[in-house]
Structure formats: C-alpha cells, structure tokens
Amino acid sequence: MQNFTTAASVILPSAGLQPGDIAVIAVYFVFILAVGIWAMCRTDRSNVSGFFLAGRNITWFPVGASLFSSNIGSGHFVGLAGTGAAAGIAVGAFEWNAMLTLYFLGWIFAPIYIAAGVVTMPEYLSKRFGGQRIQVYLSVLSLLLYIFTKISADLFAGAIFIQEALGWNLYLAMFILLAITALYTVTGGLAAVIYTDTAQTFIMLAGAFVMMILSFIRVGGYSELQVKYMQAIPSIRPNNSNCGIPRADSFNVLRDPIKGDPWPGLHFRALHILATWYWCTDHEVIVQRTLAAKNLSHAKGGCVAAGLMKILPMYMMVMVGMISRVVFTDAVACATPAECTKYCGTPVGCSNVAYPKLVLEVMPTGLRGLLLAVMMAALMSSLTSVFNSASTLFTCDLWQKIRKNASERELMLVGRIFILFMVAVSIAWVPIVQVSANGQLFDYIQSITSYLGPPIMVVFVMGIFWPRLNEPGAFWSLMGGLAVGLTRMIMDFVYSSPLCGQDEYRPEILYKVHYLYFAMILATITAIVAVVVSLLTPAIPKEKLVRLTWYTRHSVEPRMEMDQLNGANEQEPQSDEPVTYDKLDAHPEEKHTWYRRAFDLFCGLDKSQQGTAETVRPTFFSIEEKPVPRNIVNFMGLLMLCTMTFLFGYYA
Question: Which of 209, 245, 353, 354 has CB atoms 3.0–4.6 Å from 324's, for a disulfide?
Fold first, then answer.
C-alpha cells in the first residue's frame, strides 16, 4: 500500500488545485445536493413504489440520462481511456454494442417486466419459476458483484483523482464522498437518484466534451492522432521485443479473431450474452430505471436517449486516452516493470493513469476543477445507483422472505439501513482495491462478468421465449454455469498474466481461450443443461405464465401464482382493468410527537405506517401505448440501430 501512495505522488506531481478549481467543486456539490433535496421534497417516498421506483412517474429524458450516467462511472473514464491508450479504439465497440442491447431492453424485456408488475429481476424469476432458491441466489450474487466489480472499480478509479488532486487521506476522501452519496440515497430514494443522475449527466458530458476538444487541439486533430499514436513508443523498453510498441490494428474496431481482440467473441458475447445480462436482466441498476418510467413509451424513449449517448465514450474517453499516450508516452506506455513501478507503482503497466494524468497536467485552472467534479459526478452517480438497487434487492427479495408480514415502515427503514451497511462495506473494501488494481481496469471488469454473467442471461432469455423452461431446469443450469465460471475465474487469479517479455507459463485454456470466447462456451453449456433438465421434469401449467412470457405479455387474465413454500396454487387478486401507475394505496395518518414527525418527514416515512407491503403492490400494469408516441419511439429506435451499423462499418 505504501508503494501505491508513493508512486501515485510521482505520476501526478502537478495535481494541486487552485482556488478556482476548488470553487468549481464546491458549486458542484451545492448544486447536486440542492437537486437531491428538491427531488426528495417533490416525490412521495412513503411506499415501496415511491422509494424504490420513484412512483413510476419519470419521463423519458430523465430515464435515459439516468441509464447513461449509472452505466458511465469513473471506472469507465479510467478504464476505457486506459485500454484505449494501451490497445487502440477496439474497446469502444463495447459502448456502441449497447445501442442494440438497449433496444432489446425497451422493446422486448421492459414490456414483460412492466406487465408482470415486478420491482426487481430476481422477483421476476420467482414469479416465472416459483420457489425461493433462484430468487435468493440471484439477489446474493448481484450484491456480491456490486462489491467485487462495480464498487471496487469505481472507488479505485475515483481514488486516482481525489487522493492526488486534493491531497486528502484516501479514507477521508472516500468517506466524505460515500457519506454525501448515501445521504440523498437514504433520504430521497430512486427519485432523488434519477434526478441527480440527470443533473450529473449534463456535468459529465459538458466536462468530458471540453476535455476532448482541448485534447484533440493538443495533438493536432484525429489525422495527427493516427500518426503520432503509432509513434508513441517509450524511450526505455526491453530489447528484441514488441513491448511498448502500439498495435498495428490500433485504429480498427474489428480485429483478427485468433490473434487479436476476437471480433466474433466481441459481438456475439457483447450483443447476445453479457450485454443482454448487464442491460436487460440481472443488473438492477439499469433495469430499475426503465421500470420507473411513467409508461412503456417513456421507457423506450429513455432507452433510445441512453443509446445515442453511448456514441460519445469512444471519442470522449477512448481516444482521449490514446492522446494521453502521445503526450505522456514514457509514463502511460511504460514497457518495463521498473519504469512502470516508478511512474504508477505497479509493474504490469500504467495505462490506467492516462485520463487523470491528462486532466491534472493539461487542463487550465477552473477547467481542472470542472473535470474533477465530472469524476466525482461519475463516481457518485454510480454509487447512488448501486446503493439504491442493492437496497431494493435486499429489502424486496431477501428481507421479505424473513419478515413476510413486515410493515411498510419497517421495509423503508430496513432499506435505508442496508444502504448504510453498503457504505461501510465499500470503505472496508478500499485496501483490496489498492492492491488488486493491476493491469487494465476495463479488461478486469469484463473478464469477471464473462465468468459469472452468461448463465443468468440464458435463464432470463429462455424464461421469456421458451415457456417449457421450468424451475429445476433454470436452477441447475445456473448452478452448472456457476461451477464452470468460478473454475475459470479462480484459475485466472491463481495464474496471473506474465509481464511483457516473459515466457508464457499458464495452462493453455487460459491464454488460448479468450474470456470473450469463454462467455460463449459458458452460455452454450448453461442452455444445454436448462433444456435437458426441463424436458426431464414436469412443465409449468400455462395459467401460471400469464404476463410472464413474450407470448402472454398482453393477457388480462388472472394469473395463478405458485406458492413459494409448498407449491400450492394461489390465485392473484382479480381486477376488471390493469392497475395504472397512480392507483397505489395510501394509509391514514397517525399523530406522533413533533420530533418523530420531523424524523419521518426527513426519511420519507411520514405516510408509511403499519400497513404491509402487499397493499401497495399492484396486480399488473398496462403496456398499451398511444399510437403517436409509439410511432415516434419506434422510428427513433430504428434510427439508433442504423447509426450503430454505420459506426461499425466506418471504423471496421
């Protein structure tokens, strides 16, 4: 840890902030807190729908902005720029692929989730298959993934900026950021998160756009970048090796399927496996935003808005990282363990410092503070999303299993307390972040999710499109996929990648089977297990699949629920029409002491008394759309897909 701190001080010697920078940061914090308080006062936070789904009354642009900012964290600024500096533009394809997957979310998955009336993704699987073990397994796995990938990556990336720019103790910096983040997440719920995400999206885009313009001016434009990047070779590198030399295909998105970043693995994996898992099925942070939309058309519009914003990271992050390599070649592209340790404290490479180094050493006073505020916005936006979604998972999928008759007030308190627990875990995880942040951050995140995500995606997709899939098939396919994925992940940790110039010593399965190809293999194994086990066990009756599959999403028939304890059928409350977003029950107010009322008002508990959570859970929601909004979002969705196709063709 001492080496990390000392080395970091070496790589960013001019990171001190001027009064103008500090003023910009202060204005940013005041602005974000004001937005959070405004959202807190504007929205009913007294029930599950109001706190966890913002009352399901959010319009398309806040949905899209929140989708984008929740996805783009400080880990993306550092990770995408770092991989761009090390390997070129191909990593930007991950961002463009999201346009198709967001189309899947808005047009295929969101209608199912809305019609089913679910709050979380594990809850959907519980309704679809019955039983508790799948729902509990996915909830616990999601919470662990938040810690091992999302929180750890974002905290490490944010620490690079905060510790060096402000000179604060690392724990003090993390504690202050997490405390402010938790404050408006605990008090405001998803409404505060979405509205602050919207405000922070503007901050991120504005700051990153200024950074991009100044960076391209510094290097002389895109054509000059193409020339100078290929010449950005460090002055000290091993003899008779390719270490430190830019790849010949650095400006190609589609590369050799065997020797390069495999484009079949990138597209089939990114489009049909992990991207679908991330955007459409397992990632509560993302799907929760679409469920908060006021209707299906607004959910689709939010997906289109987020998809079009995903064009920007290639230029604002990936290419800016490549420019940083041109400007600071010896530091960013270091090729020997000694040089890398000198510049950033890790012998495997310093590409992760590409973006922060360019910000802190190139940007003028004021703009430097703006970009630091952008990093804080990205970090806090991601953390608010994680904390709110983790709270939703724990409260709705785990706590209600323990306390089946929990009052509305109890659920609200448990959700807020669990957010504070996640804050504590995040701070405790900082030492792990420091010692495990070797290599390219973005590749680390993608490899971990390649080992754990495919089985979840397969179960969701098959559950929606293949009614014959049953609970034993889903559960044992998840268990089989988890066993195979964990085996590969453990082997990756045991056999670390050799340094540049060293001989390969790992088993062939690790270095000859790219993690993108492994994701495809893992998905195939999971699907085979699901089919075989399902066909060998009884099918689920059709009346229990109403509004839970693609073919029954428009049905208004009552659904026979599968009791989660003993398998008995329990008929859903019948209604003559679908429940709309504003027909949630309220509870009569009770009189309390003034300090009890003040506490309840601050935490949004003033209206949530002793009624159980079931009184605010609707039977189902309508997914019907008015013709004009439907046609507009359909056209914009098609335009988004055409844009994605053009970009891949142009940069192929």
Answer: 354
